[in-house]
Design brief:
Layout (H helix, E strand, L loop, with lengths): L1 E4 L20 H11 L4 H8 L3 H13 L10 E2 H4 L3 H6 L6 H10 E5 L3 E3 L4 E2 L18 H5 L2 H12 L4 E4 L3 H4 L10 E3 L2 E5 L10 H18 L16 E2 L10 E5 L4
Parallel strand pairs: 1-3, 1-6, 6-7, 8-10
Antiparallel strand pairs: 2-5, 3-4, 9-10
Length: 259
């Protein structure tokens, strides 16, 4: 089984000395960087709804991106991202054996790098998958990546004997995976909160993001390779709700947490 997640918007280098690997789609990333280098600060502000400071920072990042960076310019992908999902994943506290399992079974979808393994060395960047960056391949990054992500997931799934993929990514990122080209059965867990107000369970984005990361961590730590294994997920007080679930959309519910 594979599990995929998507990066948060913020990059925050964690301090941990690990041996890194090389991303599979560096040439594609370099091509995107070449395109992004032609964008002004105002272009980047508009493209990704950034502030002046963030747009300037990312203009500078694209300008200083190198095809073969020194190790001190990169960090492992799983330790590079911050945000709600990565707070749930807590990759920096995985031990060596757990990280080795994650390297084989966990994939990070990236607007710039396509598909990343947890220990793939990346440079700081911001290029959201939903960005309408025009390239020779089309009007946005979905066009740019085409069937590449699906084919990569098929190949990587076959390498570990996986027939199923647990989607813990946001729709923005998983929307870049061409389902027609994907050979893996997709299971997309949903995480809901019950406020007890009579209005029924709701998905609360902040909590759902953290839960998706926690689900990925749960799968890594439990070495889950079959879909049934995720139904035991109980991190943060969630419980599997069979009556609310569909075969490929298991629902996990908990009482709305107190402030």
């Amino acid at each position: 089984m594979l599990v995929v997640i998507s990066p948060a918007k913020k990059l925050d280098w964690a301090e941990r000395d690990v041996e890194t690997t090389t991303p599979d789609f560096l040439s594609d990333a370099a091509s995107l960087v070449d395109t992004a280098r032609d964008l002004s600060v105002n272009d980047l502000k508009s493209l990704m709804s950034l502030s002046e400071n963030l747009a300037t920072l990312n203009r500078d990042r694209f300008a200083t991106y190198v095809d073969a960076p020194d190790a001190d310019l990169t960090r492992p992908a799983a330790l590079a991202f911050a945000g709600d999902t990565y707070q749930g994943l807590e990759a920096d506290s995985l031990d060596a054996d757990e990280m080795a399992f994650a390297q084989d079974h966990l994939r990070i979808l990236s607007g710039l790098y396509g598909v990343l393994r947890p220990l793939d060395a990346i440079q700081p960047y911001r290029l959201e998958m939903g960005s309408r960056l025009k390239t020779a391949r089309g009007k946005n990054l979905y066009d740019y990546w085409g069937t590449t992500l699906s084919e990569a997931l098929n190949t990587q799934g076959a390498a570990v004997g996986a027939t199923e993929l647990v989607n813990c990514a946001s729709q923005e990122y998983f929307g870049a995976v061409d389902l027609k080209a994907l050979n893996l059965r997709v299971i997309t867990p949903q995480f809901m909160e019950d406020k007890g107000d009579g209005k029924g369970p709701k998905i609360v984005s902040f909590y759902a993001k953290k839960a998706r990361g926690a689900m990925a961590r749960f799968m890594v730590q439990k070495r889950i390779t079959q879909a049934e294994g995720i139904l035991d997920f109980d991190i943060g007080g969630y419980t599997y709700m069979p009556d609310m679930s569909k075969p490929d959309t298991p629902v996990f519910l908990r009482p709305y947490p107190a402030s």
